[in-house]
């Protein structure tokens, strides 16, 4: 037995969300129908609007419905000479939550992964090279994830930047604050020794 | 820092779903924006349509966008003399998945809970009494949840049905198939002894 067509369609559609299977989708649909139709309406509206209107910032490639994202559009930060390269818009949020970086970003929206067909073109590296060639960039901080693909992407970009008189740095990898040495993996520990700083 | 208004609005709206917090909402929004805008569009469309068009079956109170749900509208089952009373539309689905019940349903959409202001009126018991008074019902099977509230609701409905010459029964509680006696709680075990059947 199925529910009525509209309810069924809603349950099927909810399964497109990551981590949501048939049972969760059913629970979500019933919760909205029983308790909170207004929230369901606004979610439907927000989804439709975001899916059709949100594009990418023409300067840093993060999500925005404007031509430039708030950071690139700001007078103070949009002209910054320091660019931080990250893999996803969520990384921008994580760095902004700390509030210690005041430059601008460049969002790759992925990492180099030749087997999946993701090369320099898909990561918008031509646009990044334009930024570098403009002479308005003094430092490039590579904050891609500390994974094999993230490291490969960082090295590729570092090679690309060499011809442009730009300082290229990679964020430090080491023991996280609050972590216990005993439980840190050996690769991280090795990196923390290699990256040691004079006190 | 916030995302652009539309992305932010989408993340906030996704938090209305049960079990979805700020991090999950962000992940869902980015997944849809990055990978599957078409699915996001259909979800938005399905939500808007379901929230505005889905009402309740006038006969059994389950969710449907028609006047009667598929079961109540069917020639074979809609006129059945056996009514199974359940708490939620999801319970209907669970029973239908078994395929062993061929009567019709009555969905309470909750259980008696005076402290939350849920009384007989909220559960549509007047409509159920109409069904009973019509003389077209021979048996009422009470399949509310085996909780304090579900039991109380079942007893309330049983009292109500007494004046209508209707057989009232409650589904059996006992050791579930595949369960191990060792791990079954004592109340369930006691109920399984009380409800024992001759072999």
UniProtKB/TrEMBL annotation, chains A, B:
<keyword id="KW-0234">DNA repair</keyword>
<feature type="zinc finger region" description="C4-type">
    <location>
        <begin position="57"/>
        <end position="72"/>
    </location>
</feature>
<keyword id="KW-0479">Metal-binding</keyword>
<dbReference type="InterPro" id="IPR023627">
    <property type="entry name" value="Rcmb_RecR"/>
</dbReference>
<comment type="function">
    <text>May play a role in DNA repair. It seems to be involved in an RecBC-independent recombinational process of DNA repair. It may act with RecF and RecO.</text>
</comment>
<keyword id="KW-0863">Zinc-finger</keyword>
<feature type="domain" description="Toprim">
    <location>
        <begin position="81"/>
        <end position="176"/>
    </location>
</feature>
<dbReference type="Pfam" id="PF02132">
    <property type="entry name" value="RecR_ZnF"/>
</dbReference>
<dbReference type="InterPro" id="IPR006171">
    <property type="entry name" value="TOPRIM_dom"/>
</dbReference>
<keyword id="KW-0862">Zinc</keyword>
<dbReference type="InterPro" id="IPR000093">
    <property type="entry name" value="DNA_Rcmb_RecR"/>
</dbReference>
<dbReference type="Pfam" id="PF21176">
    <property type="entry name" value="RecR_HhH"/>
</dbReference>
<dbReference type="GO" id="GO:0003677">
    <property type="term" value="F:DNA binding"/>
</dbReference>
<keyword id="KW-0233">DNA recombination</keyword>
<dbReference type="GO" id="GO:0006281">
    <property type="term" value="P:DNA repair"/>
</dbReference>
<dbReference type="InterPro" id="IPR034137">
    <property type="entry name" value="TOPRIM_RecR"/>
</dbReference>
<protein>
    <recommendedName>
        <fullName>Recombination protein RecR</fullName>
    </recommendedName>
</protein>
<dbReference type="GO" id="GO:0006310">
    <property type="term" value="P:DNA recombination"/>
</dbReference>
<comment type="similarity">
    <text>Belongs to the RecR family.</text>
</comment>
<keyword id="KW-0227">DNA damage</keyword>
<dbReference type="GO" id="GO:0008270">
    <property type="term" value="F:zinc ion binding"/>
</dbReference>
<dbReference type="Pfam" id="PF21175">
    <property type="entry name" value="RecR_C"/>
</dbReference>
<dbReference type="Pfam" id="PF13662">
    <property type="entry name" value="Toprim_4"/>
</dbReference>
<dbReference type="InterPro" id="IPR015967">
    <property type="entry name" value="Rcmb_RecR_Znf"/>
</dbReference>
């Amino acid at each position: 037995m199925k529910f009525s067509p509209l309810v069924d369609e809603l349950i099927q559609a909810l399964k497109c969300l990551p981590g949501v299977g048939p049972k969760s989708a059913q629970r979500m649909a019933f919760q909205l129908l029983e308790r909170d139709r207004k929230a369901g309406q606004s979610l439907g509206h927000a989804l439709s609007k975001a899916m059709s209107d949100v594009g990418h910032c023409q300067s840093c490639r993060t999500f925005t419905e404007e031509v430039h994202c708030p950071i690139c559009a700001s007078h103070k930060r949009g002209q910054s000479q320091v660019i931080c390269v990250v893999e996803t818009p969520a990384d921008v949020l994580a760095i902004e939550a700390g509030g210690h970086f005041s430059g601008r970003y460049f969002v790759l929206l992925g990492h180099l992964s030749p087997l999946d067909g993701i090369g320099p073109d898909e990561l918008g590296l031509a646009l990044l090279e334009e930024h570098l060639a403009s002479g308005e960039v003094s430092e490039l901080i590579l904050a891609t994830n500390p994974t094999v693909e993230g490291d490969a992407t960082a090295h590729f970009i570092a090679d690309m930047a060499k011809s442009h008189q730009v300082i290229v740095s990679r964020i430090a990898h080491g023991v996280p604050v609050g972590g216990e040495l005993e439980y840190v993996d050996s690769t991280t520990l090795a990196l923390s020794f290699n990256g040691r700083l004079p006190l």
